[in-house]
Amino acid sequence: MPLLFPTLIAGASQSGGIDSLSVLRSARRAQDAFEITRRENLPLRPSGSNDGRYEVIGRIRYWYEHGGDEDSAPPEPPQIRQARTRLLAALDVAGASLPGDEWIVGQRVRYLLEDSQPRLAARAVEQCRAVRSWCEALGGLVQHASGEFAAAESLFSTALADMPEDERCRWSDIAPLLDDKLSDRYRQLDCASRAAFEQRWWWLAQPLYSVAWNDRRTEHLARQTMVRIEQGRRTTFGLYWANDLRDVLLRYGWPTWWTREPPMASLFVTEPNITGHDPSPAFQFTPGARAFDNPGDTKSEDWIPEPLQGRERYAPRYAKTFEYLDHQVGVFRRGDSCVVIAAYDLSKDTALAGRPARAALVLTRSEREVVVRDHETRLDHPDVLVATTPCSPQVLSLEVVAPVRRGVARARYGLSPDENARMSDLLLLEGVDSLPSDLAAAVPHALATARVRADRPLGLFWEVQGLSPAGEQVTTSLTVTRRKTGWLRRAVEAVGLAAPRRDVSLEWAEVLVPRVETPTVAGRALTLDLASLSPGPYRIEVTVTARGRAATTVRRDIELVRP
Description:
By secondary structure, the protein is α+β, with helices and mostly antiparallel strands. It has helices at residues 20-41, 78-97, 102-114, 118-126, 132-145, 149-162, 165-172, 180-187, 191-205, 215-230, 243-252, 289-293, 439-442, 487-494, and strands at residues 53-57, 60-64, 257-260, 274-277, 321-324, 327-334, 337-344, 356-366, 369-378, 383-390, 394-402, 407-415, 427-430, 451-453, 458-464, 472-482, 504-512, 522-528, 536-546, 552-561. It starts with 19 loop residues before the first helix and ends with a strand.
């Protein structure tokens, strides 16, 4: 259940008998004392990594750790826990005296979340009498940290709406997250023009299109809230706040645990070297310039969520793994709409097999135009999803979430159907005795991958568009050609001394008659026996020629494998 907040009302100024300056100074001394105690008692651990990658940001050396997670955090020493309890008691007293002080309520929320007490953090927000937008932002932070992303999104949106324009522009700033090409363009815009840029960018950065919220954006606003909480003071690292710490926090988030370097035998080292450890595993979801400008033309590699070294990273609470989802997609036109078929199979995935999951096929042209087809399933069998969408450039995202294992599998890329195509995609099918005559009959047999077993018949299904309702005679040719042939063969073919190799070649003439429900569209299916071919990459090519019309060709690449 979401943590509940009453209506947040900006408080009036304090009055009567309270020395507010003395209260604030006392609270700040308590925080300084806690951070000194923390630094002195942190677990010992050498910083950095011999084979890791790092980036220098101002005074900070940021290491890209791989393979770790929250389970590798050592227990927090009791001295630190006891010191934090004393700090929270002091902040409670200060907050009761000055409920309208922004710094005190921010520290209460921060250290309560750090102490794994989100409900008490929510209570501190309820008691907040500071500026309305600050109380709302703190509420958004608590909800985001609790995994209640829809509630966090609502509170952050309200907070931004309640801010003056210049403050809202600073909170919305995404410049530290952008790659060089996009950053140059973004920085040239005024605040009003940046809003449309940011809206598009956050749409593309959303980790899962199948949910109603964008937790990557609420993560950014939670980080902005933490920036305001921490700025102006000496941090856990022992460093005084500056822009380098702001950039690190906005790009990678705030640490959830800390360690210190083992002491060095040197007279010149007086302060421990502190390392903060961010939530892990973390991924990069934000788009580069190619995806931002032409999302409908992107490839899967433009959306890889786990780069070796990213401009920014985010660790979703719901994803301990974020895998590429092997699948097959086919597009079939119906007038101005396209029917999209997506098949996948995670039943052999050792981490996810047999688990309950939610699967979704999402097609989106903008943050306001999203088609979602989803269902609950169990990952013990192949699965197929079908969605109908306008035939125009858009982003396809096939998403499977297994909550129990915190496992996510996703395939995302651009989809740009050819408006003038007279043939559909080739849909790979299990070889069956009775060949399907229409798309509805073909869908249940769609293969979940382009990796095809040579010892089993391979079925193909496609449709031809624009036929006479009474039927038309067409000539169809089909070839299966091995890709990546040797250099000598390619050279001989290039100079015309040999024709391109055709490992399988068929041609036939027939009359195609559309079905009543699709009066200008006819489906065709056949079965291929590829057992005589050696394993490797192949291309299937089907060409259809109707009398008086140009030939139309479609292709599908496959990988032939032995069992």
